[in-house]
Amino acid sequence: MKQWTKTIEIAASIDEVWQYVDGSLEKMQEIMPNVVSNAPIKITDQVVGSIFRQEYREGNRIESYDVHVMEYENTPTNKKLKIAFTLAKFFDITAKYELTSISDLKTSLTYTTSNKALKWYVHLFLLFASEKTVIKFVEHVKKVAESNRA
Fold first, then answer.
1. SS3 call for 116
2. Does the 2-147 domain belong in CATH 3.30.70.1150?
3. Which of 34, 56, 77, 116 lies in disulfide reach of 92, CB 3.0 to 4.6 Å?
4. Would you say the pTM of this structure is higher than 0.85?
5. How far apart are the first and last CA of the chain?
């Protein structure tokens, strides 16, 4: 299993950043444009345990998988969402978004993702995986959040 973590400061309020992580499909698509749908399958009162059926476009294919909410916190100064899903029966993936309010107009985002190969022959893909994708993702979230400030 491989894990990557990256923290970045964003010049936007915690609520402005959070809407891209825990908001509408349209807001989610601004930071993850390949997500085609995100439909609730099971919703719990505490959010943890909720399941969403997500579809993701990869080239001409659309992959469908169930996203399980593992951790959830939503307070005025701290927000956290951890999800887990299995991609194409090859990888178990987790993604955790942790937001901390630094000030009214500044937020710290820590993004952690892990990837575990489920088949022996896909372990090679993980050997060559780097944190480049994670860095690119948090920089994209920063750019979107800062350019769309209310």
1. strand
2. no
3. 116
4. yes
5. 39
